[in-house]
Structure formats: C-alpha cells, structure tokens
Fold this sequence. Notes:
Layout: E1 3-10, H1 31-48, E2 51-52, E3 59-62, E4 68-71, H2 86-97, E5 104-113, H3 124-127, E6 136-145, H4 152-164, E7 173-181, E8 202-209, E9 216-223, E10 225-238, E11 241-244, H5 245-256, H6 266-276, H7 282-293, H8 317-339, E12 340-345, E13 355-360, H9 362-380, H10 390-406, H11 409-419, E14 420-430, E15 436-442, E16 447-450, E17 456-460, E18 479-482, E19 488-493, H12 511-515, E20 553-554, E21 560-565, E22 570-571, H13 574-580, E23 582-583, E24 586-587, H14 597-617, H15 622-644, E25 651-655, H16 658-673, E26 679-683, H17 684-687, E27 716-720, H18 727-740, E28 744-748, H19 754-765, E29 775-777, H20 790-813, H21 822-839, H22 841-854, H23 872-880, H24 890-912, H25 927-962, H26 967-981, H27 998-1002, H28 1006-1024, H29 1026-1038, E30 1050-1054, H30 1057-1070, E31 1081-1085, H31 1091-1095, E32 1104-1109, H32 1115-1132, E33 1147-1152, E34 1163-1167, H33 1177-1185, H34 1194-1208, H35 1231-1244, H36 1249-1254, H37 1267-1276, H38 1279-1287, H39 1289-1319, H40 1357-1371
Helix pairs in contact: 1-14, 2-4, 5-6, 6-11, 7-8, 7-10, 8-9, 9-10, 14-20, 14-24, 15-20, 16-20, 16-30, 16-39, 18-19, 20-24, 24-39, 25-29, 25-39, 26-28, 30-39, 32-37
Amino acid sequence: MCGNFGLIMLGKEGSTGCAADEFEKKSAPQDAMDASLHQTLHEVSKLHGLRVVGDANWTHNKSSSGKYNVIESTSAHAGNAEMLKPLFILEAQTAATEVRGGQAGGISSIEYRKETSTRTAQSSYEAKFAGAFEPIPNMFRTRCVARKRYPLAADLAKKFLKKFGRQPDPSFAVTFVGHTRFATSSKNVESELHPHEWVPPRVERIWRLNSITGKFESTNVSYCLHLTHNGDFDAFEMYSSTVVNGELGLWLERVLWTENLTKGDSPKLAGLMDVMRVQGRWGPACRLGYVRVLKSVNDVCDGEQLCKEAPNVFPTFEFFQDWAEALFEPVFHMHKNNIIKVRQDKDVMGSKKKIVEYSIDPAGEAQFVDAVLSQFDSYADRFNANTWSRKERLAFVSLTIRSFLRNDLYTTLTEVLSRAEGSFGIQCHCTIEPGVVVIASKGQPMSVSFGPDLPLCLYGSEAEAIAVPVDVDGGWLPERIDLDSKGEVMRLGTPRLFIEGRFGHIRKQTEEEKEGDNFEKQPAAPSIYEGPVIRKTLGNVTRGKEFGERAGIRMRGGVEILSYSLVTDCEAMGQELVDRAVTITSAPIPYDPKADLVAADLAMTPGILDAIDRAWSNTKSVEYIVAEEFCKYMIRCMKHRVDTQTDSTDLLIGGVEASLWVAEQFAADLRTIFPQLNIVTVSANKLLGLADDAPGKVFFPGTDAVLPRRIDNHTCALLISQSGQTFATLHATRKIASLVGDRMFLLTGCFNSKMEVAMKEDYQMRGKVYGKNRVFNNYSGYRPAEPTSAAIVATFHTLTRLILHLVVATRKKFAGSRLIHKWEYSAATDLLRKLVRRKTAARRKRLREEAEAAGHPPPEEPDNSRQDTGKEFVTWYEQGRQTILMNLTDGCIDDIHTIMATSMIPNIERIVGFDKYGDPLDEDEKQTNEELRQAGQAWGDHVREPWMVVIFVAVYLFVSVGFGLPLFGTLGTVIVEILKAANVDIGNGVLAWSPRYPRTMVNQGIGWTLVGLTLQIVDAVWFIYIGKNLTWLLRWVTGRPIAARMGGRTIVVVDSPCIHQLTENFASKLFSQAYSFCMPNVHGASGLDHFVHRFTHRVVRGVLLAVGRPDGRLCVLAKSEAAVLLAVKQAVFIENPAYSGMGAGPDVITVGHNPYVPNLGLARHVVLKSDNRRKFVDEYLYERLYLAAKPFTGAILRQLSNAYSAAVKGRAEWADIPYGAQHINPNVEHGDMFTDFVLNAKEAGMLTMKQLKAGVSSKTQSKSFDPAVRTAFAGRLDRQAQRVQDYQQVVQQFYECRVAAIERYVSFCVMFHAMAEKAHTPWFCVPWDMARSQSNLRVATTASPVANETGGNHVSNEVKKIARDFAAALRGYSANF
C-alpha cells in the first residue's frame, strides 16, 4: 500500500511554443444524467467544502458537428490565475497520497536552469559545463520516515526546503517524483525509502541533439536516475529464464560495480533502468551490448552460482568507457550526419522558435554498424573479444548502437515493464532528459492530469492527488487520463525530439514532403507517418498539420503526452488519448493539517444523506437509471428461480472490511424482503481466485468457496469500495466482469473511479458501449479521515435506497407477487361480482323473459351473499404464498417509505448537531448530541487519567524532593510552629532523622528524632501508594467510580455484527496514534450471540461497555432488547466483593430509542429521539391496554381499520394512523370481545368508566418500557392482534436494520469522537491526529493480503524461446538479455 505522485512544471524557456494538437472527444455525454449528477454534487459541495466545476444550472448545447459541448463555469479549473509554487502543490499531493499509506516518504526533484556559454563558472563542477547547450540539471532527493504524530506531507516539505534552500525555480523546467510508503518488503529506514537510485551521480559525456544549432553534439553532464515504484517486483525475465528479485540484486551489483544493501524490491528496478537507459551514452551502451551477448546470468561471476561471496568478473565501467572512446565514438563522428536526420519547422504559430526533431536513417545506421565491425578486429585483443564469433561481434555492435540511439527513459521503461513480473506503478526521471518524467502502470493504478493551456501536469497513484489546487484561486487541472493497468507506459513533459515509427501505421512519403525545403531527404526508407491531417478542438488545444496524424498529444502549454500500450504493442494516437480523458468535475477538500476531519465528516453526514435522497428521487439521475437496470436483473432472477427452482446465485456481493460488513447487512435485509433471492456475500480477496483452480492459489481454510458452477447467465454482481480502487475489489472487478459481463454493478464514493475504468475496459474488449448505467455513487466523495463515519453512512443509506427501489420496481412489474391478505381477495371478488352483475343485468333480464316465453323455469341468480364471497380464492391464495416475490403489502411499502422520509435525516441531525445545510442546530434541538458528547467526555476522563496522575506525581516529587517539603513532614513542622506561636513549651529541635546529619540528632531531644523518623516513614508509605492515592482523589473530585482498575481501559462495543464491527473499527482508529498511557483497547461483540462467551470472563473493574439496544417497544424487537440487556447484566454483576459499593463493576453506556432505564449498575442511557416516527399498531395497543389482564383488541382494531380506510380515501390525516394498520382485517368482530374486556377491567378495579370509554389507563399506573414486560403483554393479546403483530415483522425488522441501527452507529461515532477529543491533547505532549493512524492507510491499493490470482495465463518459456530464435534468424544475431 504505497503511492506515487509528482509534477512537471515548464517555464517560458522550457515551453517550446510548438504547434499543439487539436482534438475533440468523440464520446458525447448523456446530458440528462450528467446534468443531474452535477447538480446534486454541486449542492453537496456547498455544505462541506468540496470544489466543483460549474454551477447548478449546467447546460448542454449542440455544436455544428452534432456533438455536445458542455457550457460551464470554468472558475474551478486552473486558468489565468498565478500558479502556485511547485512545493506547495507537492505538499498537497503528498497529503492526498497518504491515504494509500504514509509511514514514510520521499521526493526527488530535478531543476533545470538554462545558462549561456558566456556564463562564468562558479565552481570546478560548473566549469565542466562551460560549453553546455542544454539546461544544467540540479538534482535533489529528500526522504524521511514519518514521525508518529506529525503529518508526513509537512515534514517532507520542510525537509526538502531545508536541504534545497529555496523553492525550485521552474523558469526552464522542474520535475518531481514523490512516493509515500506503507512498508511491505522491508522496514522503513531511509535507505529503503523511495525515490531510489542505484548508481550515484557522476559526470559523463552525453550525445544529444542541440536544439539551438540543430546538430547532434556532445557535452559533459552529471547523470543520475531516480525512480519510485508502487507494487511488488517479483522477478525479471533474462537469459531465457526468470530471475527472482534477490538474484537480480546480486547480478546488478556486479554489472554496475555498485554495492546496494537495500532489502526492498524497488531498488532493483532503479538498477535495471541504470543498466538499460543508455541513449546518448557510449560507455553504458557498450556495457548493455556486452550484457546482451552474455549467455547466462552466472557469467558475471565466472559461471558460479550467484551469491554474495561469488567473484565478480564483469568488466568495470571504465573498461566500457575506454572501448567506446576507442572504437565507437570516432566512427560515430564520421557517420552521425548520415544516421541522424534533423527536421526544423520555422515560425510556428507566430513564434520565432524552431521545432527541432530528428529520426534515424536505417541505411545510415546499417553503414555505421558495418564501419564499426570493420575496425573491431583491431581492438579485439585489447578488450578480450578475440574469441568471439562473427555472430557475437555482430550482435554486440548492433545492440550497442541500437541502444545508444534509442534507449531513452520511454523506450527503456517499456522494455523493463514488458519483461518484469509483479505489479507496478512507476515514475522515473533522470538528469539528461530535461523536463521529462516517464510513468507506467501494470497491475497498479496510475493517472495523469493536465490542462491544455498550462505548462504543468500532475501524475500519481491517487486520483485525488492529481486534482489538488495548482493556482492561487484554488483551480485544478481539468482533464485526467488513467493508465491501462494491464500495461501502459507514458512519457510526460517536453516534446520528444526523437521521432520513431508506430507499428502498423506506415505510409510512404508524399511528393510535397519530398520537395519541401524543411524536410531533409532520406534514402528510400518508409516514412513514419500515416493518415489524414486532423484539425479538431478540445478546449483551447490547437494542432497544426505539421506532422499529420501521429502518436501522443502536444499541448499549447508545452507539455507532450506519449503512450505505449503493452497490450496492443503500439503507441496511442492523440485522438485515442483524448477519448480516454475524463473531466475532473470535483476536487478534494483543501489540505489543512490542523483541521478535525472526523468532526467535519460527522457534521456533513445529514447533507450527504439529503443529497442521496434527492438524487434517488430524480428519475433522470444516474443513481435512478442504474437502479432501474439493477432491479430489472433482480426481478428477472426472482422469476427465474420461481419458474425453474434452480440453485444458482442471483447476486454476488463483494467488498473488503467496512464495505463487506455493510454488504453483509444489506444482503440479509434484502433476503428478508425478497425470499426468492439467493445472495452470496464474500470478501473481495476470495473473489480474486474465483474460477481458477491453479495450485498456487491462496487457500482460505474454514470458509465456503464461491462455486463458479452456481454463477449462470442470470447472476449479477455488486462490488463495493468507497475509494473505487481498493486492491482486492479493483482486481475482482476485472475477474467478475469476465464471468457476469453486463450484469456487474459498482458502488463507490467517487466519480470515474479505477473500478469503473476497469469495467469500461471490459466493455471495450467485448465490443460493447458502456452507457454509464452500472455505477452507484454514494456522494460522500473523498474522505481522508481513517475513522470513517460519513462514507459508511452514505454507503449504508445508498443501499437502503436500492432496497426501496427494488421494492417499488417489483410491485410495478408483478403486482400479484406482493403479500396480499385474504380479505383483500375477498373484497376484490365481491366488488368484481357486483360489477359483473350490474353489467349483465340486461342480459339476465332477457334470459328470464325468453325462459318464461318458452315455458322453462328462469335461470338461477348468482348467490352474492357475503358469507360465500371469496371462498373459492382461499385455496388459490394459499398456493400463491409459495410464489410470492416480496414479503410486503402495499401498505408496508408506504410505511417504509414514510419511515425513511420522516425519521432518518431528522434523527441524524439531532445526533450530530448539524442540519442538512451544514448549520449548527439550536441548543434545544442538540440535546441528544450533548448527551452523547458528555458520555464520551466522561470516558475521555477515564482514558487520560493515567497521564494526569503521572503529572501530579511528578509535581509532588519535584516539590517534596526538590524543595525538601514532604507532605507529612511539612505538616509536622507547621504544627510545631503553631505550638511555638501558642507559647507551648516543647523545647527546641528539628523533626528529622538523618544519618547524613548525626550532630543534629545528638544535639536535640530523642522525642524530636523519633517523631521526625515516624513522619518520614509515613511520608515513605504515602509515596509508595501515591499513584493510587492521587488516582482515587482525582476520581473523587471528578465524581467518577473510585474502585476501577488503574491504567489502560478496555472498551467493548455490544451491538449487531455490522454495527459493532464498524464501531470497533472507528474507535480503534481514533486512538491509533495515542500514547501508551492513554490508549484504550477496543473490542466488539454481538449481544445476541457471543458477547457473554467472549468477554464475561474478562470483565474487570472499570471496563467500558458501549451497548447498542434495539428498540424493545416494538413487538418484534422486544425479545432482542431483553436478550441484550440480559447479556450485559451478566457482565455487569461480575464484581469483586472487596470493592462493593465503590463502583467495582463495568462502566456502561447504552444507546437506543427505548427510554427504559435498566438496572445496570454504573450505567448511563442516552435516548435517541424517535418522535418523528409514527407508532406501530402494537405500540398503540400497548399504550391503551397495558394494564389489562386479558386484553381484547377488537374495538380498537376496528377503529384503526376505519381510520386507515379513511386516510386511504383522503378523509383523515396519516399522522394519526399507526404503522401496520393495513394488516387489520376490516371484518373483525368486536362487540362481545369489548364487552368482556370492559367487564374484566371493571372487576379488576383498574379503569374508570371514562377511561374505559377512551380505552386508556394513564393515571392508574405508569407505563413500563421494559422489553420483558412488553414481551409478556404481546403474549396476552388475542389471536387477531397477534396476527397483526406477525404481519408487522418485516417492516419492524427493516426499521431496526436500516434506520435505527445506523442511527446508533452515528451516535457511537459522536460519542467516541468526543472521548478522543477530550483525551488527544495530554498535558505537555504533542496532540495526536484523530483522523489518521501511524501508517495513515485509508485505501489498501496493494495486495492486502492476497495478490491478484491469475489462472496461469503466462506464456510458457518454450514459446518464448521459439519467438527469440525466430527473431534471431530474421536479424542475423541474437540478444540473450
């Protein structure tokens, strides 16, 4: 879990002023979806600081070409404002990248300063550059291990500035490559940190094109290469074998003659680049040619096995430098004009500058090879090559020359990446390619952002790191391209002067080009260009027709982007890159290391929930359209299950950690409502090996495998990841896409995530068009705080909305598949018969008349008596129960929608203390928030107590020992002085016994000495117990339990599995940077399952129990709350009798909606308000009949049924109707039952006649909210009331799992945040950041812990050997390396 980041900034001298490329995006946006999405996001941004392009009234106009151009405010995109200093941008990038792990980090910069040849040298080093025609490089590298409680971004920037002495000057060009590290292959020490270099800087003679004279010349330049790598470098293919990382390091030490003691894998990549990046360097090119003609990896140690003790027989660098100077450079001087073909364009776009580019003439190169071979024999003895065969000599010379001419960073990294095994996100730059950085992706995400008019581009692993502000107005770069993680290399920066051909795109030179005065004529080699001239637009990017269609994009700001794909084995054309670019519509919250990100997340939660509701209520929103597609497949799966009774998987849900826990709860709730769905929830790590039976696959013992045979052409998949790039989930996206195709859906918290890009790639591979209808967004956006609250709630709520959408869609598609009561069938049948009788009255009259006229008896009239109505449908109804798709009635559907609309957001606002507009609530509305904070602050006092006691003891020691004022000795002295002042004759002496001053004891009475000795012993005993005494004193003063154990506290969260896991994760991360003296241990358990078995034997004095209670006022949840309280009581009543009455039990805080206060000893109960929710029928009955020994409910039920019918017809207010009233049979009999109830109640003497008429009893005895009492009352109800309770089960469970539970989670977050806020600033210590851990890992982007499982799709060594032999036969020589 590491991250790359960096930037290139070109100055006026670095920008070439060349003609830029003009393109237009071919893919038109879906305007209605994008506009709705943008509008919602814009409104969210107002609440919590997100920055968004444009305003809420996004519009679309059609251009003359028929494509859509978005008309928007560009104030958010970087434009004409002054650019920020590079280091400020880099610090923000570092902070954004730290979410991938920030245990350590490093930055490498190369500043290029353009100097003239008349400049006076300031040092012996600068004297070497007296004739330099290229900018002089100034390279710096800074690395540091993050301090535990300090932001890495700030530390790294300060250290770099201290070492560099100033802000880097981008007057010509400056490049940065940076890296944040989460240690995987080696420990975090500075030598193991990125950026890596293998060979230290040294001055070399470099050949390159002089952009001023247009000639190929040499100069002395300090050469060094730095590289950062995110991923795992496992092995490298060389010499017809695969060399593992450790052996490769030993080989590199011998070839480069530079020892490297690092243990990590990334330094080997830097070493390989040092070996192979040899363009313009004859000595290293000779070395690479020599390496390529060796036969084996062991040749460097005289055939012995590679190890530390093996000898090194490989020639030194000076050997190859001599060889180059003796043989290659003299011949190159004579042939360079035939090899290097330079081309210049004059007065481009009004600029006086010339564009200088060059290509290599194949005929001239062949002549050069022949010339070197002709002189090779003269130097064979000198360089120990006299035993080489003709093919070996040809191979050495050809490969040396080819490498010298072509192996720049771009070409070299392409070759390295194609032969390396592992996962790679790479950044690399060197001192001899000014303003150039090459990045690569293979199994790891990498992205680049750019602006058409800006001399700047950002790149990195984290999408948010390339959307940071780049100008003083807070603008960011507008476009982003994600590299293909299947293998892609990209060159960024100043235009590449060396022009190569593109495989498959070759055309012959036109007559106009042959005759043009600006094109040097070459031999009859084919030209490198093909295709028509393109003149199109993308923003302000323009392109001339100077080269026709060619690879890459060249922008007006001077930045060029070239891309080579390892999948297609060719470069991408400019139009291809532009079509891949996505507009960055929003940027992260500006970097502020002092901000409380956890509090900010909690405050914005209501606003995010409101944004989700508005998006899902809009039929044109992306979420609504995606939900329609999802529901279409789910309904199809349910009908397929009913029709075929197959055992296939309908929905496969994957995620990691919090995403998985939320998904498991979602799956359980979905199955409750839709019993026909077969849902499997599994960790994304386990999905990586799905459908692969390779023996090297990770084995998960003790778990059920996801059976591929149960995945059929109806199976859908839903993968959840907040960042959209979690390693396991991202690679599972590619894996699952190959199995389910179009039926895969994603849920992320960001737009254009890596997972969505991977899904788009799968669509492209299958030749299908991706319609933006497969990704749900939870609108929480970039959340850098590790203790996550807003993102969890947003994901939870989005899935709740998905359930509601599926409910409505199922009801619309198959109305008869819902739950329908028997009396509804009867009523419908009665209505139908009446309608038929009315419509057929005339016909029946005519039949009667005809019968009478014919003398026949009249036909029988149908019996419409109410007793028989609908009986023929009962059998059908009972059979239909087996094929019901949804366990909800129409009334239930209305109830759950009303519960969500009236309860969720208002209750969350009260809990967090902020409304959905981001404003604080009034004091009278913040009671719940204040109670939660007070409870958390009380526990914060528990946690910080040990350090306070240490400080008090230190003060006591300082006073008693330093000033000689022990407590009891000082009291004794005071008493003596009081007695003397009262003229009491006690003689003269000192209350002290000390062998250091024996004369004092001899010269005074023995009483003084004995009393002094006694006081000193008392002081000693007091000091022995001073820690405990001061602890008890502090607890007594603050009103906290005295008997709790001293030292660290343990927190146990007791709630449902989903909530206790999420809360445990949240609380533990709040204290992950805490000091040892105030760090609690956090655990979690289910009160309905294993809490008693896991924790009752570990209950000690002072353990902190945070208990989430279901709402036991509801009949379905009463037993659940009673069971939770029983489990907690079993823990609470375990106490040491020696401390009885002193607070010896656990300290308990319960959170729930039921106001019942149980006997739990030292307990505090925080009641979550639920007055926005209407009561359920069972609550309504309990309030009116809770004192009845045998409650009869007929009259009340009939009253509720009538009221419900009136509300349905619009004749009554819904606010007066309890939830579940639709389940009451309107035909219920009530007369005799009510009479019996009245008689029974009157005989019992419980109710007055007035109360009997009202049906309530509020003055006789207070109503109990005890869930046990509530359960007993439910058992006394008559059959018809119990039937209503049974029908309420699904809705009440939905309320508990989707509403009440998430409210408890947010409550715990508020409480624990207040606890950490109280404790995170211990006296005389640096406060810790509650929002981050020491590793600062927010997004697991590396194998964690399972690598991407492959099914053995590698090309075998035998096939590779055949390909190499074939290539050698074509060339006439072979390259072994």
